[in-house]
C-alpha cells in the first residue's frame, strides 16, 4: 500500500496538505453536481446565533472564501428547553423536509453542530465555534473551511444521506492514494480512531466484530457489535472493546507519532463523525413529527449510536448520571429511540493512521495553537498568521500565536499565548498562556499571565457600545451556585469571587446576576463595564483584572455593567465583522506596499 511506504506522521501530513490544496482550488468556484456537498447546514442554539452565522456565511460567500453553487443553511433550535445535538439533528431533518420536500432524498448533506455558547472557550461565544480562526491561510481559515477541506473526498463516495459532525474537532487521516472512504452502506457509518483507554473514557467507544485479517491496513471496513458512550476502563474490558496490536501493526506503528498508540500495548477505537443514509434519516424524521415537541436533551452520539449493533441493550437508557433534570422524560425518550433504531446496522470505517483533535476549551486551544508540534506540522500552522508583527526567532520551540492582528514593534507576547483579530499598541506586554480576542489596546499595558480578554461590540438602544470580558483562562464560567450566600464558592482568576466583588466595590444582591436567579455563575455575573470606545472597554476591564491581582481597590460602582450572558444578547455582529475587515485591509495594504518596496 502507498501509505505504508512513508512514516505514519509524514503520510498524515502529506494527505492533509493535499486536501487543503484541493479545497483552496475550489474556493470561489461554482461546483458541478456531485463535485461537492449539495447542502452544508450549521445548527444554531437561538435566533441571535442564527443571525450571526448567516451574516458570517454571507460575508464568506461575498468574498469567495467558500465553494459556490452549494446550498448553505443555518438551522435554529426551537425556543424553549435545550434539546442537545440529537434534538438539533431531528430539527434539521424537519427543516430539510420543509425546504426541499422529496428532493433531499437525492442529496449529500453535511450537518455541523455548532449550537451552544462555548462557555469553555468564550472567545468563540459571540461568533460561534464553527467560525473559530485557525493560524494559517490567506485569508485566514476558520473551522468551517477546515471541515470542508478535510471532508473534501467524501461527497463523491457517498450515497444520499447526512454526515454529522461537531464544530470544535479536527479529524486528520491518511489512507492509500487509490483508496477512498465510502459511505455507501445502509444505516449508520461512523469513523473510528485508535486511542488510549483513558481517551476512551471521554468519547464513544466501538466494540467491533472480530477481524478476519491479520495484516495492518490504514483503512478497514468493520461491523460494530455494540457502541459504548463514555465508558469506564472496566466497562471497556468487560465489553471486549480493548484491542491489542496485531503483529504488523505493533512492529511498524507502535513507536510512531500516533499519540493514542505511542507506547500503548492496548487501545480502543473511538468515535468522531458519523453518517446516516437517507432511509434512516426519514425514519428519524417520521419519529420526530410524531412526538412533536422535545422537552429534554438528546445526544446524537449517546442516544442514537448506543441503540445500534446486535449487542445493544436497553440498559443505557436508564443511565442519567450526567443529567440534572427531565430524567423521567429523558429515559422514556431514550427507550423510544432505542426501539426505533434497534436492528439498524452500525458500520465502522477504521482509520488506523488518523488523529482526532478537540479544540473546545481554553486549555486545548492554547496547547494546540502554541505548543503542539504534531498539529502544527500536519496543518502547517503558523506562529504569525496573516499579521503585522516583528518576526519570532526560528529557534524558539514554544511560541506565541498571532492571528490576523496588528502589533506594534515594541509589543511583547510571551510564548504560549494567542492573539487574534486584535490591535496592540506601543509597549503592550502579554504574559504567558493568555487569549486576547477582538481587542484594541492603545497605550502601555501589562496583560497578566493566564489572562482571558475578549471584546464585543454591542448595540444598546440603537447606540454602538463595547464591553470586554476579562478573567482567567482557567476560570470555570459554567460552575454555578444556587444561592447568594454560596457566591463565595465561585473563583475569579484564582481568587474568591466575594473578595473580587469587595475590590470592585460591588454588593452581592440578586441584581448582580442576570437570567436565572437560582443558577449564579461568572457567566451571568454583571461585572463587565460598558464603554463608548473599544480601547476604553479593554483598558477598563484590564484595570479590574489588575486590581484583583494586586488586591487594590478599583470601583465599578458607577459603571454600567453587563454579564457575558447579556453581552451575547446585545452583540453587534456587523460591527465585529467590520473591525476584523479593517484589520484585514490594513494588513493587505501593508503587504502590497512591502512588495512594491522590495521590487524596487
From TrEMBL:
One of its GO terms (molecular function) is nucleotide binding. Gene3D superfamilies: Hexapeptide repeat proteins (2.160.10.10). Transmembrane segments: none annotated. It holds the Pfam family Fucose_pyrophosphorylase. It comes from the Eukaryota. The keyword Cell cycle does not apply. One of its GO terms (biological process) is GDP-L-fucose biosynthetic process. InterPro entries: Fucose-1-phosphate_GuaTrfase (IPR012120), GDP_fucose_pyrophosphorylase (IPR012887), Trimer_LpxA-like_sf (IPR011004). SUPFAM superfamilies: Trimeric LpxA-like enzymes. Residues 101-532 form the GDP-fucose pyrophosphorylase domain. Keywords: Nucleotide-binding, Nucleotidyltransferase, Transferase. The keyword Repressor does not apply. PANTHER family: FUCOSE-1-PHOSPHATE GUANYLYLTRANSFERASE. This is Fucose-1-phosphate guanylyltransferase isoform X1.
